[in-house]
Design a protein that fits this description.
Layout lengths: L1 H36 L4 H8 L3 H8 L7 H10 L4 H5 L18 E3 L5 E5 L9 E8 L4 E4 L7 E8 L1 E6 L2 E6 L3 E5 L4 E5 L5 E8 L7
Antiparallel strand pairs: 1-2, 2-3, 3-10, 4-9, 5-8, 5-10, 6-7, 6-9
Helix pairs in contact: 1-3, 2-4
Length: 209
């Protein structure tokens, strides 16, 4: 009986080691994919995360099982949640559908401009986008966003103007305005027939640093 239990114990250990090896392999691929998506070298990721360059290299090559603290440091440096870094199904297909009733709507103070939040709520801390529909004369006044943030307003129909610090620029259908939104800014619909646009907000946009 004891001999059988010892054999089963060794088999269980092998199963655990095999499972850890699979997870580690997926983790290494994920870290490498995210690092390259950010155009970071091993040295740059090491500097930003505080994890030794040699350790990151070993993780990406599936030559080591990193501690949770190491995974945490890397996830913080790559601006992703630890759940995403540890996700094991990132190679599979992904498609998600939101219905109209499930889409949150923001309304300007004057009630004339509506912003449907069509962006993914999971990305709201670094990327936001909206479908904007405005009645004639609609005004959206916004406080400053996080330093380095950029807003992109692409007009689909009608005409909009953006005012920042006394500077005003207008865009019509087919045109896009890009501007720093880390200071108070105002968006107005100036077309007599109203307007329709898409607004994308990039938080901490590197291009403005």
């Amino acid at each position: 009986m004891w001999g059988r239990m010892a054999i089963e114990g060794r088999e269980r250990t092998r199963e655990l080691e095999a499972g850890a090896q699979v997870l580690s392999g997926q983790l290494g691929k994920t870290i490498q994919r995210l690092r390259k998506a950010y155009n970071l070298s091993l040295s740059e990721l090491s500097e930003q995360s505080g994890v030794a360059k040699s350790i990151i290299s070993q993780i990406e090559r599936n030559e080591t099982n990193p501690t949770l603290a190491t995974i945490w440091r890397l996830s913080q440096a790559l601006d992703v949640s630890i759940e995403r870094v540890l996700a094991s199904a990132d190679e599979g297909p992904f498609i998600e559908k939101s219905s109209r009733p499930d889409t949150p709507i923001l309304v300007s103070d004057d009630g004339r401009m509506k912003l449907a939040i069509i962006g993914w709520l999971k990305t709201v801390e670094w990327l936001q986008w909206y479908d904007v529909v405005s009645e004639p004369g609609g005004v959206l006044e916004s406080d400053a966003h996080q330093r380095g943030s950029v807003e992109c307003l692409s007009v689909i129909a009608g005409e909009f103007e953006v005012e920042i610090g006394g500077t005003v620029q207008t865009a019509r259908a087919g045109e896009t305005l890009r501007y720093r939104c880390d200071r108070p800014h105002v968006v107005r619909c100036t077309a007599p027939e109203g307007g329709h646009a898409t607004m994308v907000v990039i938080i901490k946009a590197a291009v403005m640093e």
